[in-house]
Write a structure and sequence with these properties.
By secondary structure, the protein is mainly alpha-helical. It has one domain (about 5-205): Four Helix Bundle (Hemerythrin (Met), subunit A) (Up-down Bundle), CATH 1.20.120. It contains seven helices and two strands, in the order H-H-H-H-H-E-E-H-H. A two-stranded antiparallel sheet has the order 1-2. It is elongated, with a radius of gyration of 27 Å. The N and C termini lie far apart (about 80 Å).
């Protein structure tokens, strides 16, 4: 077990911890203890997503296990967070939002699995990376909004947590849908080229295997007479 894979497993282990913190009555929401601890755990888990990938590339420790676990850990973290947020703050995260987010993750995972079986990969797009960043911001903002709608910053200036959470959730939904379409278009173009190559290859092989034409009737008569 190398270091990058260990960090990925830590991210997976943080998922039940995050669920327990947000669902348990052991931590108080009156003082904001629950929201602050949950936000710290989620941010730390999200940061490990970049750390394990960086270490794997730098140390040349990219393994099959890491390739398998890393996207699973990301999707489990996001899915668990939004499922809990539906219960924690349903005004900002209704059930359909969680369905869109989780459904998008399953769709992209399915496309990547099919692509891998066909011998090509679908690389993460800039929209996908933006989606991940917006998801982190929206999850943290919604968690904090459960206790604070705004934070005083300096004098009459405030930090509008509620509006940041509201805007980021809707922006995240839009980016998730657009990035899913982007992945699907990339997948379809590659799979279509792959199918076209197979058709051309099958056509060429069929022409090569075409039987030789029969000799003319006169030649057959001569051969028969001999």
């Amino acid at each position: 077990m190398n270091l990058p894979n260990s960090i990925t497993l830590i991210r997976i282990a943080s998922i039940p911890l995050l669920i327990w913190i947000l669902s348990s009555s052991r931590f108080s929401s009156v003082t904001g203890e629950k929201e602050l601890i949950a936000s710290i755990v989620f941010i730390a888990a999200a940061i490990t997503d970049g750390i394990d990938g960086y270490l794997a590339r730098k140390r040349n420790q990219i393994t099959t296990m890491g390739i398998l676990l890393d996207p699973i850990a990301d999707k489990l973290l996001i899915a668990a967070a939004f499922v809990v947020l539906v219960q924690l703050n349903p005004a900002l995260v209704p059930a359909w939002v969680a369905i869109v987010v989780i459904g998008r993750e399953f769709l992209v995972s399915g496309l990547r699995s099919i692509a891998a079986s066909e011998g090509f990969t679908i690389e993460a797009s800039n929209l996908g990376k933006l989606k991940m960043f917006v998801q982190i911001v929206s999850v943290v903002a919604v968690i904090l909004d459960h206790r604070w709608r705004e934070w005083p910053v300096y004098g009459r200036y405030i930090f509008p947590i509620h509006w940041i959470a509201y805007v980021s959730i809707w922006f995240m939904v839009c980016v998730s849908l657009v990035s899913a379409i982007d992945y699907f278009v990339a997948f379809w173009s590659k799979i279509e080229r792959r199918v076209e190559k197979r058709r051309r290859r099958a056509f060429i092989l069929s022409r090569r295997r075409k039987p030789a034409p029969a000799p003319p009737q006169a030649d057959r008569d001569v051969a028969a007479s001999t």
